[in-house]
Every structure is written in C-alpha cells, then in structure tokens.
What we know:
Helices cover 36% and strands 15% of the residues. The chain is elongated, with a radius of gyration of 20 Å. The chain contains six helices and nine strands; from the N terminus they run H-E-E-H-E-H-E-H-E-H-E-E-H-E-E. It folds into two domains: 6-62 and 197-227, no CATH class; 65-195, 3-Layer(aba) Sandwich (Rossmann fold). By secondary structure, it is α/β, with parallel strands linked by helices. The chain has a six-stranded mixed sheet, sandwiched between helices. It has a three-stranded parallel sheet with strand order 1-2-8, with helices on one face. It has helices spanning 30-42, 65-78, 94-109, 127-139, 152-164, 198-214, and strands at residues 48-49, 60-63, 84-88, 117-121, 146-149, 174-179, 192-195, 224-226, 229-231. Helix 5 (152-164) links the parallel strand 5 (146-149) and strand 6 (174-179).
Amino acid sequence: MYPTGVGGADPITGWRGSDGPPSVGAENCAPAIAAIAAIAVSGVPTVLVNRRTARTALPFVGADDQRGARLCVEHLVRSGHRDIVHLAGPSDTSTGRARVSAFRSALREYEVPPRRSAVIECSGYSEEAGIGGAQRLLDARRSFTAIVAANDLLALGAMDLLATVGLRCPADYSITGFNDLPFMRKLSPPLTTVHVPLTDMGAAAARTLLAWIGTPDAVPATPAMIPVELVVRGTTGPATSP
C-alpha cells in the first residue's frame, strides 16, 4: 500500500468515482496507518487483509494466526521438544502479537516451564531479520532443540545462519515456519510450516468488500479468520539433547 498513492495521488480522492479501493494490509509504519485511518473516516468500503490495526473498525480478513502458532508448538512438544525458541515478528504488527500470544499460551497448555522457552523479537519478516534473530539466539548461549519462526523467511534466515556454525536441521534442531511459500517445499530439507490458503483469503476479502458495497449501511464487523493447517516436512523431528 502506498500512503500517498501511486505517483503521489491522494489515497482517498484517487478512489472517488469507484465503488471501493483495493483491499489493503495494515503495515507497521505511521504513514500507512494514517492513510488507513483516513480511508476509514471517508466511508469508502475497504477491507484489511492479513494485518490489521486497532485504530480503525474496518473489516478484516486474515489467517488464523493463533491456531497456526499453536499447531507448531503442539507438533514440537509431541515430538519431545521442551527447549523451544520463538523467532517472533515485530511487536507492532498484529501478526507478530497474535503469534507470540499463541506461542506462550500453547507452552502453558503443554506445561512447558517458562525458563525453557524464549521469545526473540526480529526486526522484520525477512531472511535478513531471521539471520539477525538467530545470531541473537547464539549470542545468548541459550540451549534449544526447536525454533518456531513467525514466518517462512525468518526460518530460512535462521537455518542459513545456524548452518554456518555447524548446526544441522533436523539432526541438531527442528524449525517451523508460517505461510508455506511455494519454494519452501523445495528446500533441503523442505520446511515444516503453517499453510495459509491465500486464494481463500483473497476470495473472502473480495466477498466482504462486495457485501459492503452492496449494502453500504451494513459495515461487516466480524473478522473473517481463514483456517490454516500445519504441513509437516523435513525440518522437524524428534528432540535431541540440547
């Protein structure tokens, strides 16, 4: 999303004359949040996709982040892991907050002592941010047998960094991702990750937007949470001693 519009066009007036703007995602930057707030005030039908902001009441369509993170923890715990680290997304994103919350909740449910887990907040959702998060994990000299990464690229960056110090996956540690990007299944080993059905998410966003356009006085209020599933591949296995 471009807060000032493409080519400098105003984000609101640029959509006048149309039924609604494209669906947008709430980014963790002030200009984007300001633009979304302006859209909300304008009354132009708009749907937030994937990420949301608490500052507006715009309808939201996104993956079930809570369930996805819980599935990762559940899979790892059932494989014998207890020393589990979460490479989290930025805390100023709705996805980052939801997945951290679910990670901690699942650990409590499975009675994993807090001292045996850790949350490392990464600077973003990129491979470079994953490298940085993994480096901080190594610098902390914390024992771990598994990593729950907040998305696939963080997992990829962490795997790259850990390989440089001789740690092999899944022989030395297990790791999970989130999103199931197409090329993750082509890694060696292929990534265990949460599959997010993006086509379903887009279709749900379109239906929500069209429903609002068709009935302008009935703003959709209930968030649409798209079901996710864990795809178990080659980066997870039984726990080894840390």
